Amino acid sequence: MRSLCLFILAGALWAQTPPAPAPAPAAGMLPSLPDDEVVATFSDGSKITMAEVKAFYGILSPAQQQGILRDRVEFLRQWAIMRHMAQIATERKLDEQSPYKEALEQARMNVLYQATVNDTLNSFVIEPADILKYYEGNQNKYEQVKVKAIYVAYSDNPPSASAPAKGKKPLSEAEAKAKAAKLLAEIRGGADFVKLVKENSDDETSREKDGDFATLHFGDNIPDAFRSAIFKLKKGETTEPLKQPNGYYLLRAEDVTIKPLSEVRDEIYNDLKNQRFADWMAKLNRETTVQVNPKFAPSASKGPAAK
Questions:
Q1: Rounded CA separation 142/265 (Å)
Q2: Are 36 and 139 in the same domain?
Q3: Strand 247-258 and strand 143-153: pairing?
């Protein structure tokens, strides 16, 4: 009975308008009481211990937890009401009626699904040697390239030659591409990159910093074409012109380094756990088959059984 109440309470207890805020505990935490200490006794004589409160508190969202901390008495009163209503529902056998029966089963499956995910992830043991092996075998993932940039902007609708000039005339895409290619030839011929930045780059922010653009990592959210070009560079090399919707970039590698293991150890640990879980899920998916009645889903008769 109590478990049913807790599932309902977890989602509904603080969905209502919360009571007026009461002073929060000084430490912003639940009181430090022994686990076996009774914190409330309900009208039917049932008792709730500190251990039960802490266990329930741990499954709530941060906002719900703050609601409890604002007014512990109101929390326990709402718990008692929800518990009582769940008892009434059971006495009326509402848990055996649709749609409540199905909703309870769905909630149970959801909770057990997540419990299985957590338990499976916690069962994987990642040894230090596993982390080191992965790090040494995937050095490219931990490369970081400090780049300088020249940006040559273009406009899809440049003004006509007869239009009055207002400041710098925008280039067409073809003109910008040709200019970027010319600059690249100069760079590869030994021209000073910073000087070319100051004279040609349309990216004001990086131009003011002598072309300093960013330190990029393999996993950064950058266009694939950029990633492919940048992480092939050696120190001092410059990419071919890289097209973006409104301009071409020339990116020069100022420094190419590998993140030390100490900085990526936790990331690798999580990656290995997630990979093992993905493998486990793939195996589970292969082992789980469903024979579908084609009258229910006509497409089932046109291929292998759904999984």
A1: 11
A2: no
A3: antiparallel
| Residue 305 domain-assigned (yes or no) | no
Residue 18 lies in domain: 2-92
Within-domain flag for 222 = yes
Q: What is the 3-state secondary structure (H, E, C) of the chain?
A: CHHHHHHHHHHHCCCCCCCCCCCCCCCCCCCCCCCCCEEEECCCCCEEEHHHHHHHHHCCCHHHHHHHHHCHHHHHHHHHHHHHHHHHHHHCCHHHCCCHHHHHHHHHHHHHHHHHHHHHHHHCCCCHHHHHHHHHHCHHHHEEEEEEEEEEECCCCCCCCCCCCCCCCCCCHHHHHHHHHHHHHHHHCCCCHHHHHHHHCCCHHHHCCCCEEEEEECCCCCCHHHHHHHCCCCCCCECCCEEECCEEEEEEEEEEEECCHHHHHHHHHHHHHHHHHHHHHHHHHHHCCCCCCCCCCHHHHHCCCCC
* pLDDT average, residue stretch 239-254: 95
Instruction: Establish if 188 belongs to a structural domain.
Output: yes
Domain match, 144 and 205 both: yes
**Residue 151 shares a structural domain with residue 216:** yes
User: Is residue 24 over pLDDT 90?
Assistant: no
Ramachandran bin of 190, using left for φ above 0, alpha for ψ from -120 to 50, beta for the remaining angles: left
The whole-angstrom separation of Cα 5 and Cα 13 is: 11
pLDDT for residue 159 = 56
State what percent of residues in the chain have pLDDT above 70: 85
Q: Return d(Cα 215, Cα 83) in angstroms, integer.
A: 56
For the segment 43-70, the average pLDDT, to the nearest whole number, is: 90
Read off the pLDDT of each residue in 217-240 and give the average, rounded to a whole number. 92
**Domain harbouring 229, CATH code:** 3.10.50.40
